Amino acid sequence: MRLCRYDDNRLGLVEGNEVKDVTEALKVLPAARWPLPQGDLLIANLDKVMAEVKKLAPNAKRTPLKNVKLKSPVANPSKIIGAPVNYRAHKEESIKDKGISFGTEVKEIDYYGLFLKASSGLVGAGEGCALRFHPDRRNDHEIELAVIIGKKAENVPVERALDYVAGYAIGLDMTVRGQEERSLRKSIDSYSILGPWLTTADEVKDPENVDFSITVNGEPRQKSNTNNLIWGVKRLISYASTFYALLPGDIIMTGTPEGVGPVKPGDVMHAEIAGVGVMDVPVRAA
Ligand code: MN
């Protein structure tokens, strides 16, 4: 099932080139009362919501996908987790290109562990990326398979890690290059793009073997497969869960392969992950 959030926070079921309005399914969510539980309410209740979506789908109003404004399919993640230098070819390009590494020694994920991106920076494909510090500083795209956690995960063994996944999406870990901490440079408003929708985990047979690519204005930039990950999806989930509880709606951006490069206002990023989705993301000046 492919579920999207669009326009004024409507819930959509994506089928082919259409969105079915299944917003009414949100009635199964518990009434919000302060303090709100940490994590995303919809993802925490995804099974109930999906059951309701199935009932509503046959009679739901349809709209062409191209006519809706897609927001992040996860509204309220407690955290967005990043995986630094998790593809060897990206490590090699970072060593060669001082515009990426900024004079720091580049190591692999085993050395760094993980980092966090502020959840306030999360947007959907239809909202686009608003560049800051352009043209003074380089702003790069990083396409990554994004994993969306479905239930609380603590100290999860590698072999059970995928049991905690609600679904997948395309993640764009937008980055301003420089010497500051990753957590700052990758947390700018609109620098975490998730979309185009959430594809439920049952539709992705092996998340450690999916093709993905990104072009900018039609020019090929990044193209790889998650079988090139240094730490695969299962290991990332397991490792993260030994440091902190993963909560429903938490997002893991699994790392980016070679081919990162700058974008400028007016560009359109076209990103695709096989079996997950395709999205166009416009770039503008903040
Ligand atoms: Mn990244």
Might you state the CATH topology name of the largest domain? Fumarylacetoacetate hydrolase, domain 2
Radius of gyration: 18 Å
Distance between the termini: 34 Å
Global mean pLDDT: 97
Percent helix, as a range, is 10-25%
Main sheet characteristics: 12 strands, mixed
Compute the number of helices. 7
Our estimate of the beta-strand percent is 25-35%
- What would you call the structural class? alpha+beta
* Dominant shape: globular
CATH level 1 class label of the largest domain: Alpha Beta
Number of domains: 2
Structure description:
By secondary structure, this protein is α+β, with helices and mostly antiparallel strands. The chain has two domains: 2-71, Roll (SH3 type barrels), CATH 2.30.30; 80-285, Fumarylacetoacetase-like, C-terminal domain (Fumarylacetoacetate hydrolase, domain 2, Alpha-Beta Complex). It is built from seven helices and 20 strands. It has helices at residues 41-44, 46-56, 88-96, 98-101, 109-112, 182-185, 233-241, and strands at residues 2-6, 10-15, 18-21, 62-64, 70-71, 80-82, 115-117, 122-123, 129-131, 139-141, 143-149, 165-173, 175-176, 192-200, 211-216, 219-225, 251-253, 261-262, 268-273, 277-285. The strands form three sheets. Strands 1, 2, 3, 4, 5, 6, 7, 8, 11, 12, 14 and 17 form a twelve-stranded mixed beta sheet that branches. It has a five-stranded mixed beta sheet with strand order 9-20-19-15-16, with no helix packed on it. The longest helix is centred in the first third of the chain and has 11 residues, at 46-56. The model has no long low-confidence stretch (mean pLDDT 97).
